[in-house]
Amino acid sequence: MVSNPYQDQIYQLEKKIQENQILLKDPELNELACLELGKLKEQKKLLSQAADQIQQAQSQSLMRPNTRHQNAILEFRQGTGGDEAKIWAEELMRMYTRFAENLGLKIEFIDDQVVKIKGKAKINNFDQALTAYELLEFESGVHRVQRVPVTESQGRIHTSTATVAVLPEIHPQVIKINDDDLTWEFMRSGGAGGQSVNKTSSAVRLTHNPSGIVVNARQERKQAQNRQIALELLRSQLWEIQEEARLKKLGQARSSIGRARRAEKIRTYNFPQNRVTDHRIKESWHNLEGIIGGNLEEVISNVIPRLTPQE
C-alpha cells in the first residue's frame, strides 16, 4: 500500500474547516470565517494534489522493474574481416550460450544473431546470485580475434572483429512506443523451425521510423509471438539510446564502460599466443580454448567488480 505523507496535515486542515463552518453561523465572525475557509480549502487542495502526485510516482516505481535486474538480450554482428568475421561472430555466440548453459541459465534464440538469456546464477567472488544482465552487461563492445583462418591457404595470421551488444529486457512501462511510429513487414521464415514455419508469413521485420532502428524476429511459429519479440528488441535498443544520452549529459559516458558501448574494443583473442586480453582492466588469461569453449567465469568474475561504477 502506498502511503500519503500529507495525510496528517490534511486531517488537521479538515478539522479547522469544520470549526470555521460552525463560526459562519455567528454574525460577528461570519466574514472572518469566510476568509479563513477560503485559505484552508486552498491549502487542502494543494496538499491533496501533491499527495496524489507522490502516490502516482510511487505506484509507477513499484510497477517498474530495475533494468539492472532484467534478462539479457545479446546481439552478435560481424565486423571487419569478411567471412572470417562472420565465423567469429558465430563462435562468440556459441561461447556465451555455452557459458550460460554451464551456469544453468535459460537460453532463447531469437534469430541467427540474437539470443536472450534468462535467470540468475552464482559465480566466483560474489556472495549473491547475479541476474543474466548483471553477469553480461560489461561484455558489450568489439571482440578482436587474431589467428590463421580456415580459409587461409598460406598460413597467414589475420585480424578480424565482431561486435557484441548486451541489452536488458525492458518492461513496456519503462519505454513506451507509439504505434504510429512503427512499420511492420511480414514474410516467410527461413532456417530452423520446420515446414510449418516456412509456409506461413510468421517472420517479422519491425522498423521504428523516428530512429531508423530495424529489428527482426523469426524463430517462433506464430506471427503474434514474433511481433512480441520484435517489440522487446526495439524497446531494448531505444533504452540503449536513451541511457547513452543520459550518461553523456551527466558526463559519465566514459565511466560506464561496457554498458552498450558497441564501438569500443574491449577484448582480443590471440590464438598463436594462446592469450585472451581484456583491454579495459589490462589483464590476460592463457586459456584461450577453454574460454572460447564457454569457461568465462574467471574472466567475468574479474571484469565485473573492476568496471562497476562506484556509488
How much of the polypeptide forms β-strand, as a percent range? 15-25%
Q: How many angstroms does the end-to-end distance come to?
A: 29 Å
Which value, in Å, is the CA radius of gyration? 28 Å
Can you tell me the number of structural domains? 3
Using the 3D structure, state the CATH architecture of the largest domain.
2-Layer Sandwich
Looking at the structure, the CATH topology of the largest domain is Alpha-Beta Plaits
Mean pLDDT: 82
Output the CATH class name of the largest domain: Alpha Beta
User: SSE order, as H and E?
Assistant: HHEHEEEEHEEEHEEHEEEHH
Major sheet attributes = 8 strands, mixed
Q: What shape does the CA trace take?
A: elongated
Please work out how many helical segments DSSP would assign. Answer: 8
Helical content, roughly?
40-55%
* Adjacency order of strands in the biggest sheet: 2-3-1-7-6-11-12-13
Low-confidence stretches: 60-67, 191-198, 253-260
Question: What structural class should be given to the helix and strand makeup?
Answer: alpha+beta
Topology, number of strands? 13
